[in-house]
Amino acid sequence: MSKLVRVAVDAMGGDHAPQAIVQGAVDALQMRNDLFIFLAGREEAIRTELAKYTYPAERVQIVPATEVIETGEPPVHAIRSKKDSSMVAALGLLRKGEADAFVSAGSTGAVLVGGQLFAGKLKGVERAPLAPLIPTAKGNALLIDCGANVDARPSHLVQFARMGSIYMESIMGVKSPRVALVNIGAEEEKGNALVKETYPLLKACKDIHFVGNIEARDIPAGQADVVVCEAFVGNVILKMYEGVGNAMIKKIKEGMMSSLRSKVGALLIKPALKATLKDFDVSQYGGAPLLGLKGLVVKSHGSSDANEIKNSILQCIQFKEQNISEKIKEHMNTEEER
Amino acid sequence: MSKLVRVAVDAMGGDHAPQAIVQGAVDALQMRNDLFIFLAGREEAIRTELAKYTYPAERVQIVPATEVIETGEPPVHAIRSKKDSSMVAALGLLRKGEADAFVSAGSTGAVLVGGQLFAGKLKGVERAPLAPLIPTAKGNALLIDCGANVDARPSHLVQFARMGSIYMESIMGVKSPRVALVNIGAEEEKGNALVKETYPLLKACKDIHFVGNIEARDIPAGQADVVVCEAFVGNVILKMYEGVGNAMIKKIKEGMMSSLRSKVGALLIKPALKATLKDFDVSQYGGAPLLGLKGLVVKSHGSSDANEIKNSILQCIQFKEQNISEKIKEHMNTEEER
Q: Nearest CA to CA, how far is B137 from chain A (Å)?
C-alpha cells in the first residue's frame, strides 16, 4: 500500500461534476496501478456514476460529504462554514496525511484558500502561487502567479521565479528554463515600482536562468519558459488567451461561412484547424498546481471534462515521483541561508 | 485659412519613415480640402518623397529638422536634448498654436513625454492617458490607459473613464457608452487595492454609464465600450491581442499546410480569412490619442504604413470638428465643482 500515490478528488467540483470527475478518476485508475483515489462528495451520486464502469474497486474509496461549495460563494466563508462539503472533506485527507494530493475543478477561490489552509505553506515560502501551463508557439510556458493574492511584493516574485524554475525543470524536463519578468518594455529601467524593484533581485539570483523583461506580446511566441508576474497581471494574461482566442475563432468561422467558396474550403481545412486550435487551448493541460505547499494541490479548469480530470490526477503522480514539494522546500531554505 | 485643420506630422518617426509618412500625408491631403500639413524632418529626404506625387503644394509646408529620436532612447532625455529633431519641431508648432494637432509614428515614450510637455494638460486633468481602439467581436472598444505612466491612483482611473466616455460618444458615435473596470472577477469585492478603491468612485459617477467589473476574457467579446485600467495592465492587454493573434495565425497557417487536403482548403478560404484577420488587427485604426491635453496628440503604430498615417491624420480633423479637448475640459471642470 505504501507505494500507492493517494489522490483525494473533489467529486462535486466543476461544471460537469460528478459525471466527468468520476469518469476521469476511473480512466486514471485504469492507466496506473500505483494510484489510489478518494472520491469526496454525495455518496449516492458517486455510486451511481461508478456503477457505469468497470474499475479496480480496491483502489477507490468514497468519502461521504453532503455539501457543495459553489463558484459564487466567498471562498474564506465557504471553506470555514461548509465543513461537510466535498472540497473540505478531500482537503481533510490531505491534511491528515491520508492523501498525497488533492484535485478539484471547483471554485478557484475556495481551492486557493482551502489549499493554503489545509495543506499549509512550506517553510520559507511567503505566498503560494497558482501556476498554469500556457500554450506558446514553441510548446508551453509556466505562468506564475495567476492566483487570487494580488498586490505582491518583490520577494514574492523572486520566490515565484525559483519555484517556477524547479517545476519546469523537474516536471516538464526543460533544462535551465528561461525565466522572464512581465513588463511593458524590454529595458531594465521600464515598468511599475514592483517590477523595477524585482528586476535586480532576479538578476542576482544564482539558481535561476533569468533572461530579463518580457513584453506580453512575446509570451505566446514562446520567448520564456517561466513567465513571472503578480496575480492580477497573470490573471489578465491567462484570460486574454481565452478571450482573444475565442473571439478570433468566432470571426474565422463567420468568415468561412461567408461564401460558397469559403464554405467548401472550411470543410477541407476543418481537421487541420481543429488540431491547431486544440494546441492553443489553455485548458488542455489539465490542472494548475498551487506551488509552495506541503501537500500537492491541483486546480483543474471549471469546465473540465473526464480527460482533463484524468490528466490532473496523473499529474499528481508525477509531482509525487519528482518530489516537487521537497525540492521547493530545499531551495527555499537555501535562499534563507544566503 | 482659418478653417483649415493644421496637422504637424513627424515625418521621420516610425519604421517606414519618411516614405510611408509622406505618402500618407499626401493621401490625406487629396481626400480633404480643409487640411493643411506640416512635415517636420530632413528637408532633402522629405522633398525626394514628395516629388513622387501630385499634391496640393499650397497646403503642405516642410519644417526642417536634422535630428531623429530613435525608439530605444530614454524619452525625457531625447525630448530635452534633441532640440532639432523632427518630433520636437512638430510639437513646437502645436505649442505655438500654429498647428491644431500632432501625429507621430515614432517612439511611444517620446510622444507621451513630448505631448504632455509641449501641449500641456487641460485644467483639472491629473494624467493624460494613451487610449487606442481595440477590436472586439461587436466592433471596437477604447482601452484607456496604455501609456507609460504606471502606478495610477483611483482618481486617475475615474478621469480615464470620463474622458473615454466622451471620446466614444463624440468621435465613435456610441450612445451612452458602457464603461467597465478591468478586474480579475466580476464581483465588486474582488481585485487589488487600486480597483477596489476605484469601483465605488466609478459607481458614484453620474456622467458615465458604469457597468461594473470586466474580466479580461470578456474584452475581446465586446462587453464594454470603454475599458478602464491602469497603464501596466492596459499595455499587457494590448500586447496580448497582438501576441495571441500572431501566434494563432502562425499555428493556423502551419495547420493549413499540413496536408494536401488542407492546402486546397486554405486556398479557398484565403480571401475570407484575410478579411477576418484584418478585423482583428489592433493597428487597423491608425492612431491612438493622448487624451486630456490642450492640443491634439496622436500616436500612430510604429509599423504604420501610408494608410495608417492617412487615417491618423484624418482622425485629427474629426477631433477638431468634435472639439474633443474642449468637451473634456468642460467635463473635468464639472467634476471639480461637484
A: 6
Cell numbers for B258, please give them. 499540413
Across-strand partners of A134?
A141
Q: Is B246 in CB contact (< 8 Å) with chain A?
A: yes
Question: First vs last Cα of chain A: how many Å apart?
Answer: 40
CB contact under 8 A, B276 and A259: no
Report how far residue A128's alpha carbon sits from residue A169's, in angstroms, rounded to the nearest whole number.
19
- The reply to whether residue B269 touches residue A271, judged by beta carbons under 8 angstroms, is no
B245 — pLDDT class (breaks 50, 70, 90): confident
| pTM check: above 0.80 | yes
A4 HSE (CA, 13 A, CB side): 15
**Chain B contact set for A73 (CB, 8 A):** none
CA distance B201 to chain A (A): 20
| 3-class state of residue B266 by DSSP | helix
Tally C-beta pairs within 8 A across A and B: 200
Instruction: Give the β-pairing of B133-136 and A296-300.
Output: unpaired
A233 touches chain B (CB under 8 A): yes
Q: Which amino acid is at B190?
A: K
Q: Inter-chain contact B252–A279, Cβ cutoff 8 Å?
A: no
Place of cell 504606471: B150
Residue B114 has, within 13 A of its CA and on its CB side, a CA count of 34
Query: How much is the mean pLDDT over chain B?
Result: 90
CB–CB of A255 and B244 under 8 A? Answer: no
Say which of B231, B237, B262 has its CB closest to residue A240: B237
Q: Which residues of A touch B252 (CB under 8 A)?
A: 252, 273, 276
Mean pLDDT of the region B185-214: 92
pLDDT at A137 over 90: no
The chain B residue lying nearest A134, using CA atoms, is: B244
- Give the helix/strand (H/E) hosting A333: helix A324-337
User: CB atoms < 10 A from the CB of A45, how many?
Assistant: 17
Half-sphere exposure of B275 (CA within 13 A, CB side): 11
Q: Provide the CB-side half-sphere exposure for A48 (13 A, CA).
A: 9
Minimal Cα–Cα distance from A318 to chain B, Å? 29
Instruction: Write out pLDDT tens, residues A145-157.
Output: 998 788 899 999 9
First to last CA, chain B: 40
Write the DSSP string, B67-113. Answer: B---TTS-HHHHHHH-TTBHHHHHHHHHHTTS-SEEEE-S-HHHHHH
State CA B66 to chain mean position distance.
26
Could you give the CA distance from residue B7 to residue B37 in angstroms, rounded to a whole number? 5
Say how far residue B233 (Cα) sits from the centre of its chain. Answer: 16
Q: How far apart are CA A130 and CA A109, in angstroms?
A: 11
B189 contacts A232? CB cut-off 8 A: no
Query: Which of A294, A314, A267 lies closest to A103 in space, CA to CA?
Result: A314
Convert the pLDDT of each residue in A219-234 to its tens digit: 999 999 999 999 999 9
